[in-house]
Amino acid sequence: MTTNGDPEEYALILRITNSLQKSRDFVSEHQSKYEQEVADYLASKPGPFVMASMPPARKKLHDYHGMLSELLLQALLALDGVTCKPDFEVARVKRREAVKETQRLLDAMDAIHARVKESDRLARL
Description:
The chain is an all-alpha fold. The chain has helices spanning 7-43, 56-80, 89-124.
């Protein structure tokens, strides 16, 4: 699993793999629920509002997106904190892949939230 069998590289690979798996598990646990909450909110044809008096259903979505985003940003920061020696080629590749996948998960959550924000914008027109 490592370039040269170095136990230090192997430990980094495990750390990277575990961090990515934690993000995957968290998103798989919450993504479908979040998507359903968004679908239900959009189906309710929400009217315009000011941010100071955000309706409870909309605030729930705002908070849910914040929680999902925060966890994924923390995962990106954890991966950013992994320092691989130049000769740890496998660990470097695994870290790069983990960063890309975690960013993809974050982008997916942001895309779902963008539908809510677009609905808010249209309601104000």
